[in-house]
Design brief:
This protein has 265 residues and is α+β, with helices and mostly antiparallel strands. 17% of the residues lie in helices and 45% in strands. It has four helices and 19 strands. Its EC number is 5.1.1.7.
């Protein structure tokens, strides 16, 4: 079973490059993504070439499917460009969270994606870990919970992230963003992804954080979102349609030995 590995601002995915249908149980996906017993990744991307537009299934490290992934879509776009399936012109990709428009830039080094419209729900005050947190709920085709904090860091994300992900107000769980406004053009963000956990960056999290901050009047319509893995640039229009641009890097091709999965159930 062959994969090609990429990372987008430190968020790494395996793109399935085999010819047989990708039909694996969740336990196998968990093992493949395991960084000690498998190939290691934040998720798996399975392209679909039969439809129009092109499509993708996105798997999280817990074996569940994600509706949308900004970093994953940039990686998919780069892979399609690497394989000659697309050129330098914009093209559409179908996801479970809606259709996006992607364009590969700078000889594959960067990808720009029109991610769709941010849709807001009413904020909620949540009791989490002995704290009262103001949760700003927004959908980018997948659910997000944006919380503004004085100092976002990994330890705080690991503590609050799972509690918010599984909070009763989010019956389908949620992605979590801890956000600090640096100035009107910059945000600092730490992300906890639904079905994955703490990640070095997140594309849809960047979109959600920027959309909420702009709606509250705290940043301008163009904002750089800084995360441990790198920076993603977000642009919003008056209707809160979101365009995301960020880096992509190809890591290499890898083959999975069947022995890797022999003790999974």
């Amino acid at each position: 079973m062959h994969f090609i590995k990429y990372h987008a601002a430190g968020n790494d995915y395996l793109v399935y490059a085999g010819h047989q249908p990708f039909e694996l149980p969740a336990a196998h996906i968990v093992r493949i993504c395991d960084r000690h017993r498998g190939l290691g990744a934040d998720g798996i991307l399975v392209p679909h070439f039969s439809g129009d537009p092109l499509g993708v299934t996105i798997y999280n490290t817990d074996g569940s499917q994600a509706q949308k992934s900004g970093n994953g879509l940039r990686i998919l776009s780069r892979h399609l460009w690497d394989q000659g399936h697309v050129g330098s012109e914009p093209f559409q990709v179908h996801t479970a969270g809606g259709v996006v428009i992607s364009q590969v830039l700078d000889d594959g080094a960067r990808v720009s994606i029109e991610m769709g419209q941010a849709r807001f729900d009413e904020p909620a005050t949540l009791s989490v870990g002995g704290e009262q947190l103001q949760a700003h709920r927004v959908s980018m085709g997948n659910p997000h919970c944006v919380v503004f904090v004085d100092q976002p860091d990994e330890a705080l994300a690991r503590r609050l992230g799972p509690l918010l992900e599984h909070h009763a107000v989010f019956p389908e769980r949620t992605n979590v963003q801890l956000v600090r406004v640096t100035d009107r053009a910059n945000l600092e963000v730490r992300s906890w992804e639904r079905g994955v956990g703490y990640t070095l960056s997140s594309g849809t999290s960047s979109c959600a954080a920027a959309a909420v901050a702009h709606r509250l009047g705290r940043v301008d319509a163009q904002v750089a979102v800084h995360m441990p893995g790198g920076t993603i640039h977000i642009e919003l229009d008056a209707a809160f349609n979101v365009k995301m641009q960020g880096p992509v890097c190809r890591i290499g091709s890898v083959a999975l030995d069947p022995e890797c999965l022999s003790d999974t159930v």
